[in-house]
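Feature request disguised as a bug report, sorry. It would help if multi-protein outputs had a clear separator. Right now it looks like this:
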Amino acid sequence: MKRCFANNYDIEGFWRGWHASYNRWLVRYLYVPLGGARRRALVIWPIFFFVALWHDLEWRLMSWAWLICLAFVPEMAIKQFARSKRFDSWRGTLSYRYVCATAATLNIAALMAANLAGFVVGLDGVAGLLQEMLRRPGQHKYEHFEKTDQPNGNGVAGVPAIMEAAGVDDNGRVFDSPAELWQTQEAGEVPKFGAPAVAYWDSQEASDNGVLGGYGHLSGPDVRDSRAFLKKAYGAALAEAEAGQRQLVALDCGAGVGRVTEQLLLQHFAEVDLVEPSAHLLEAAKQRLGGQAVKGVPRGHKAVNFYQAGIEAHHPQPGRYDVIWLQWAALYLTDDNLIAFLCRSAASLKPGGMLFVKENVCERGFILDSSDASLFEKAGLRLTHTALQKDFPKGLFKVRMYALLPKP
């Protein structure tokens, strides 16, 4: 930077002061050759498009460039209009300063929105933030688990802490809340969705494509974002393990064919246990990971135990694990069973250990086949980090990741 600047009343002033050497290059080799000040309202579009490409080839960075330009164009028009001599006497007045302050506020908000869209949450995320900011007091939006007997593609679960939202069951009946749904159940009746789900997975191909419901090509983005999230929430411990200062142990819940174990967990953890109810899928995981050395896995890292069990029946060894990873598996449990498993998981963590949940989220209401529940708060867990999965196709449920610590 040419200088330390704290107050920028216009977007143009911001970009002139930010990254001076790169700005000079852009002016010399793009701005001037493309027409300079004579065509500035048009020239800024290819320039910011180039800057977005310079950062990375992502659509959300393109949205950053477009949002910057959309804010830039009216600013340039207003500046041109305000240069007229008719405003000379007004410029020294208090009202003029208030107008400048208001415009500065709008400019800063525009820069914040563009940066949020381009570098953090995307356009959809910005829309959600604005919706939350403008929501009336007392209104809340909750994300929560979606439960389904037979997942299709990306169809598994979701999230939250506390949820009081309307929704529907698999017969199309509408309920004002999950509590109302549970009240309709006969005394002692428990929805039986676990067994059909295991039967469903037993009938699927034992491969990455099979366990992802035909979306095998999403394994790469899934693992990429999971790894980034794991490092963000648990990076200090991972760094110690990489330096040889400690050995980490993880549990993969609903492990399927061992996709997450092989591509994510074994890259960072010396030992990984797998729990999976489908014998068909677990056998494929054993063949994939049961050897002495697995291609692409660091030397000495290995899958140790293969448990054939539903997580509602699994009791993790107390104090064994540094991390428990629960992805697209919570849907198979009733409320009480899932909360009980989360409590058992917390007890099986070493001091400082974390529980990671990665599930689909439904933003409005609930969609369920047999059950839906409030989870984390009831299980005594504290949320430390959360993030949305990126680069999944439209039409699939959004996927959110959660890092949780047991409450003291």
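(second protein starts here, but nothing in the output says so)
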Amino acid sequence: MKIAITGATGFIGHHVRNILKLTDNEVLLVTRDARKVSTLFSNESVLLANIGEFDQEWFSKFGEPDAVLHLAWGGLPNYLSQHHILVELPMQIRFLTSLIESGLKKLVVTGTCYEYGSLMGALSEHHETMPSTQYGIAKNNLRKILFELQQRKNYELAWARIFYPYGEGQSKTSLYSQLHTAVRNGENEFPINN
């Protein structure tokens, strides 16, 4: 299977690559900055591209993959920025719609727990979304648009909501990273986001 990954050099992308390297899939890493790809696994190749620059030929430039894992999203970690609605959402819609209109049959997009708003307790994919951040609103709108597009285009869509990921490669300014460092150093307290 040919799989293209956007956002492959990010935190989530790094972990996805580590799983896909164990498969016989042909993997295309789509990145704006090839310097961020320090090591290529045997089943990987790189395409230098900025998905924010509209191009109706993205699907063919990606080698007409069987599936796209879309992990890319700019403007993070500022979840309240208007950038998510004014810049990121329209760009994401243009990019993903062009792939689908050109023949993409399988699409996986990362969503976010911020689509649920400030709900607490156990959640399921059947809970109503009530986003309260600009990031959550933009992601939720993208999800709705992509599922509506399935009414006109025959493609499979998996919306993978991510909830508070942590682990190797995470930003040093994340709460988890700071807590982990403080515990490792035997500190009783630490300043958040310093």
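Even a blank line would do. Unrelated, but nice: The chain has five helices and six strands.
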